[in-house]
Amino acid sequence: MYTREQASQLRQAFWTAFGQYIAPQLSADGYRTNWSNYKTGLKHVYFRMRAEKKTATISIELTHPDPEIQELYFEQFEELKTLLHETLGEKWEWELHGEDEDGRTVSRIYKEISKVNVFNKEDWPQLISFFKPRIIALDEFWSNAKYSFDALK
């Protein structure tokens, strides 16, 4: 078992390693990108990567505090579902109005793998191999799709 401090340091070390590994990759628009903290440019729309003790998840999270507006964003993503899945090369899970760890209503489109542990350095290559192509594909998707959300700004 790790102390809170050790767990924090290991997580930070993983994300630093991931950031260094993916840093040379330019965005779909040809820019340098902070892949670990990806900015969609749209308030309440986030691309999140999480690595935990038993799972890893990459997701599009919709966090607007008004559930009806959050649903409008979700519906807009549903309109782009075919493009999203084609760009990703796989189908993801879709969850309207779930709860995050703080009890807030969020909607998510996500992919998860299990039997990986961010605290086990031997799992880091598998985690990086999971996150890297998907965040790059999300960026490619977003490069084309972000304009569809202009009316919701």
From TrEMBL:
Instruction: Indicate what this protein is called per its UniProt record.
Output: DUF4268 domain-containing protein
Q: Which InterPro entries match?
A: DUF4268
DUF4268 domain location is 10-145
